[in-house]
Amino acid sequence: MQMTRRLLDDGAAAAVEFALVVPFLLLILFGIVEFGRVYNAQIALSASAREAARVMAVTEDPIAAVDAAIDGAPSLSPALEPSQVAITPASCGPGVNVAVDITYPMSLLPIVGGFEIDVSGRGVMRCGG
User: Is the pLDDT of residue 7 over 60?
Assistant: First the structure.
């Protein structure tokens, strides 16, 4: 009888400990998932900025470069907007470096914090002339 009672008490203690630990484990799990989402967005933005810098260096057309930046990051939701893409300098001459900076506001899940952070990507390329 005492052995059965001791096993029941151990089960109740384990249930209480589990209930105390689960919120922290879930917070860590969602933190890892959010880090992966933000890292994926940053990689997509960097690749998109490099593609836009390449288009600007070759064609010297800022509109085509912005379109290339938007098309270069299809995994972002919501999609990039032209106002989030900055090209400096606006014209591209031989031997000049053109830089494309993209800033993308990304909202985090409410369980992790629910706030918004800016993720950015940058691409630089020398104009061909």
Answer: no
Query: pLDDT tens digits for 93-110?
Result: 888 999 999 999 998 877
Burial class (CB in 10 A: 0-12, 13-18, 19+), 102: buried
CA–CA gap between residue 50 and residue 45 (Å, rounded): 9
What's the pLDDT tens digit per position in 67-92?
999 999 998 888 899 999 999 998 88
CA separation for the pair 117, 103 (Å, rounded):
10
Say how far apart CA 89 and CA 98 lie, in whole Å.
6
Cβ neighbours of 115 (radius 10 Å): 8
